[in-house]
Design a protein that fits this description.
single chain; alpha/beta; five-stranded parallel β-sheet; 9 helices; 8 strands; about 40% helix; elongated
């Protein structure tokens, strides 16, 4: 992967002015991969040392935090997920009463459409809702309290691993079933292992083959699991 980095033409930067990717990830409460993506998108100023190690400007981290806070986008997972239903617009005004609810949190239109088609063909009894980013997904999850959540790992707004960890620690979702869908494979998933214990993972190139059986099992498990009181 080629990062969009800032070249300071050999100028030395004092160690107090920079952080490693791991340090920034800990500071922001995100996975390392999410911080790398922020650098790639130009949200953080970064460059590489002669030894190939990435260094991130602390000033750019502070600017990013200030912008998020000024825009009201600092995320409290429990607060957003626990939002009162009337505070979040209903994404499915034509929702079928009693239908099992599936929430897809995925920013790729291609995979949104693919999963919609798959569910129309194989799970017509289920009600599918879609969120384009992690923050909207949290809000919709709090409103819908879906039986099954399909969550991508690499999401704008808040990364999937942080989202999953927050959901699993929130009592409202104790009866919800989680399935991760991701383009990452093998070693690329290692930074997110802390959030994936016991969660089925579908590699996107195998989605059409593997998702139906996992989704069917998740819907059955959700139907057999008592839902916690609101």
């Amino acid at each position: 992967m080629t990062a969009h980095t800032t070249d300071f033409s050999g100028q030395d930067t004092a160690p107090d002015d920079v952080s490693t990717t791991i340090e920034v990830a800990k500071q922001l409460g995100l996975a390392v991969r999410s911080v790398q993506l922020m650098v790639d998108r130009g949200e953080l100023v970064a460059w590489k040392t002669a030894g190939g190690h990435r260094r991130i400007s602390r000033a750019s981290v502070q600017r990013w935090l200030a912008q998020r806070q000024a825009g009201g986008a600092a995320v409290d997972v429990h607060a957003v997920a626990g939002a009162r239903p009337e505070a979040v617009p209903n994404p499915n005004p034509g929702e079928r009463r009693g239908a099992p609810r599936v929430l897809l949190i995925e920013d790729s239109r291609h995979y949104q459409n693919l999963i919609k088609l798959l569910m129309q063909q194989q799970f017509p009894q289920a009600q599918l809702s879609v969120a384009d980013d992690g923050i909207a997904g949290l809000a919709m999850a709090g409103q819908l309290q879906p039986e099954v959540l399909l969550v991508d790992i690499l999401l704008p707004g808040i990364d999937g691993a942080t989202l999953i960890t927050g959901l699993r620690s929130h009592r409202t979702f104790a009866g919800s079933q989680l399935i991760v869908i991701t383009s990452l494979d093998g070693a690329e998933l290692e930074p997110y292992a802390f959030a994936l214990t016991g969660v089925p993972v579908v590699h996107k190139p195998k989605l059409v083959v593997e998702l139906p059986a996992l989704l069917n099992a998740a819907l059955q498990a959700a139907a057999a699991t008592p839902r916690p009181a609101a």
